[in-house]
Specification:
By secondary structure, the protein is an all-alpha fold. The chain has a single domain (26-206, 231-420), classed as MFS general substrate transporter like domains (Growth Hormone, Chain: A, Up-down Bundle), CATH 1.20.1250. The chain is 74% helix and 0% strand. The protein has 14 helices and no strands. The longest helix is centred in the last third of the chain and has 33 residues, at 271-303. The radius of gyration is 21 Å and the shape is globular. It is found in: Cell membrane. This is MFS family permease. It comes from Nocardioides albus.
């Protein structure tokens, strides 16, 4: 069979055979969905979880936080690909994606409210695991909407909107959690409400077509599981791009995972001051990302090159990660946040385009309705390192007895991420 050159799967037909067009404002709606998703993850991982864990056992907070995030790592491995594949197979009158977005929002919002009530590290880990299952269900379904509803000629703009949503969401989570961390249930209630309202408004304003008339694909469990594997030998460009993103994300998130503890134990700030200062850092990081992201994607399209931008972003992030080692003060940390955002902004504006250009082509007619699965596999290059970063960071801090190693390791990871794009042949 002939191979399609379209890196995204084709849009599935509705019951009457026509592909459902995107509604006006849908791209902004997706931006907001990603704001909600990233706000939960950044606020939870960066501020709320460290506060809850240290409140239960101050002396063992490093190891305990690593345990909690490692348990969540399980959800990140399985939840998003499975949710994506199962949403592909869903046949309901509410469509394929809506049930998973709504169900994920209810899980996320409900269990997030229970997080501050947890009385042991084990319960914190289990509650956060369920929150992550919910977040991954939302993300898998929302990401699949892009190839479901948009023709190829319009996906670049939508991808850019999603990138902006990710950036804003990271900052919103830090600001909300950092400014209200000492006010009991308030940050948890705000983030829960944010997810429920945004997802609720999105599915109402962008009603999915009924999927009851779509054909049901029958396959064995073996075939189902086989669909998640993309051979590095057969698709080396995809493997190198996947590895590059994996390394870059670890480098970016490693020190940020323990950012609150760095402010307290490395910079010397009080608990209250570190919470509010974390919110300030979130704003500074956002400014850096927006300044570089808005123009990098456009410039990359103009010059027809991707890899030089990835290399440049790694250099800027490496400089940023070196600053706290040389200037361990609040001023140095703010400079670090701004430059880190500047470098990461270049990266996120280019990386999605690069990844879609190396995504393995599928035979015509094969996988036409598997957008959720295919894009969830791509998303693992982001979710896995985010989940692994705390455990790697905890091991490094425990071995060395200080936080300086996190900045050094971050420099190594982002530079290796830049090296990993060099062998890619199909992208300049």
């Amino acid at each position: 069979m002939a191979l399609t050159q379209n890196p995204f799967p084709s849009r599935p037909p509705t019951a009457d055979g026509a592909a459902p067009p995107p509604r006006r404002g849908m791209s902004f709606g997706l931006l907001m969905v990603y704001v909600a998703i990233l706000a939960v993850n950044s606020g939870g991982n960066g501020i709320l979880l460290p506060n809850v864990v240290s409140g239960l056992d101050e002396a063992g907070k490093i190891g305990n936080l690593a345990f909690v995030t490692t348990v969540a790592f399980i959800a990140n491995i399985f939840a998003q690909p499975l949710a994506g594949a199962l949403s592909d197979a869903t046949r309901s009158r509410f469509g394929r994606r809506t049930p998973w977005m709504v169900g994920g929002a209810l899980l996320t919002g409900g269990f997030l409210l229970g997080l501050p009530m947890a009385q042991s590290v084990l319960v914190v880990a289990l509650v956060w695991l369920v929150v992550q299952v919910g977040v991954n269900a939302i993300q898998a379904a929302a990401t699949a909407i892009v190839p479901d509803r948009y023709p190829a000629s319009r996906r670049g703009n939508v991808s850019a909107m999603i990138g902006v949503g990710i950036t804003i969401g990271n900052a919103v989570g830090a600001i909300v959690a950092g400014s209200t961390a000492d006010q009991g249930f308030l940050p948890y209630a705000i983030l829960s409400l944010l997810v429920l309202v945004i997802v609720g408004v999105f599915v109402i304003a962008n009603r999915d077509e009924s999927a009851t008339g779509l054909p049901r694909e029958r396959s064995s469990a073996k075939d189902f599981l086989r669909g998640f594997w993309i051979s590095p030998r057969q698709h080396p460009d995809f493997a190198w791009a996947f590895g590059s993103r994996f390394l870059m994300v670890i480098g970016f998130y490693g020190a940020q995972t323990y950012g609150l503890y760095i402010l307290r134990d490395y910079i010397g700030m009080s608990d209250a001051a570190s919470n509010s200062f974390a919110a300030t850092m979130g704003v500074v990081l956002l400014v850096g990302v927006l300044l570089s992201a808005l123009g990098s994607g456009w410039l990359s399209d103009r010059v027809g090159r991707r890899k030089p931008f990835i290399v440049w972003s790694s250099v800027v992030m490496s400089i940023a990660l070196a600053i706290p080692l040389l200037v361990p003060t609040t001023t140095g940390v703010l400079a670090y946040a701004f430059l880190l955002g500047l470098g990461f902004g270049v990266y996120i504006s280019i990386d999605l385009a690069l990844m879609t250009e190396v995504l393995p082509a599928r035979p015509q007619g094969e996988g036409a309705g598997n957008a959720g699965r295919d894009l969830a596999i791509l998303g693992l290059a982001t979710t896995l390192p985010q989940a692994m970063s705390p455990s790697i960071a905890a091991g490094l801090v425990t071995l060395t007895g200080g936080y300086e190693v996190l900045f050094v390791a971050g420099i190594v990871f982002v530079m290796l991420g830049a090296v990993a794009v060099r062998p890619i042949r199909s992208v300049r």
